[in-house]
Amino acid sequence: MHLRTSVILVALTLFTVVSTASATMPWQPKPKADAISGAWDAALVTDDNSRQLTLTLKLEGNKVTGSFESSHLGSGAINNGSWVNNKLTITMETSHAPVTLTGTLQNGKLAGEWDAGHMQGKWEAKKK
């Protein structure tokens, strides 16, 4: 009886040591950080104007979802979002018209072009 109890205690001790070591092994790869999820301060720029907005993005695989908020454009959901080969494409359904943003991530900033059908311009965003 004492032998069986001793074997069980040794087995539990080994299991605890192995599970603790595997949880802290430095050679295990860390998950790749998601570079675009989160809140962004953005600006839509035309030749004579700039409109500020906040983008809140969430990346799931290659799909981008989220929302936007702006004193000029209103607020709403982000539709048809994708993140493929370091290129972002999203559509915001604004109170004026759908606005499509395309851009890339460079040096911690998202930047590219926007298109609202009747107006186009450049845009840039910095993570909050």
Which sheet architecture does the biggest sheet show?
Answer: 8 strands, antiparallel, barrel
Number of helices: 1
What is the first-to-last residue Cα distance? 63 Å
Mean pLDDT, to the nearest integer, reads 84
Q: Report the count of strand segments.
A: 8
Q: Topology as H/E string? A: HEEEEEEEE
What's the name of the CATH homologous superfamily? Answer: Quinohemoprotein amine dehydrogenase alpha subunit, domain 2
Fraction of residues in β-strands:
over 45%
Please write the CATH class name. Mainly Beta
Rg (C-alpha, Å): 24 Å
Task: Catalogue the unreliable spans.
Answer: none
Query: Can you tell me the overall shape?
Result: elongated
- The total tally of domains equals 1
